[in-house]
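Q: My labmate handed me this sequence with no annotations at all. I'd like to see what the chain might look like in three dimensions before we decide whether it's worth expressing. Could you predict it?
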Amino acid sequence: MFLPEDRDPRAGTRTTGAELPMLRDMLAAQRATLELKCAGLDAELARRAVPPSTLSLLGLVRHLADVERRWFRQVLAGADAPPRYSSATDPDGDFDGAVPDAEVVAEAWRSWRDEVAYADRFVAAAPDLDVTGTDSWRGTVSLRWVLLHLIEEYARHNGHADLLRERTDGARGL
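A: Here is what I predict for the chain of 174 residues:
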């Protein structure tokens, strides 16, 4: 365990009740898991898993900042908000730009936290889970679908984070 159960921010996740609070709790728990997997590391966050792979914990933080931005700002809010790290000319910029530099690490966390805060505000202001947006790939998507997709996205990448963290310093836990 990364921390005792009585201090684990994921311990209070609802297991019954209304759909929206459960979805919000589950997404918050997945986000907290990412933070826990990265806790106590600075430049080590950029350490690559197994070369030539560019997968790193820092790359995951940057990638998930772009994911949050895409689904909440671009798709649901319809904002002109280009990705922070990747682009058409550099589709792997989120991972390729994840270098062991203190400012790069700090900026990645700021960006991720900004996008999470925006997403949380968007969800809190939404009248219901049936709010929709248009995605160039999926077509019309609802807030409900986006929340489920983000839970899946974090869960998948938190599995990667488990392996990356263990490879980085041997730490294991939930």
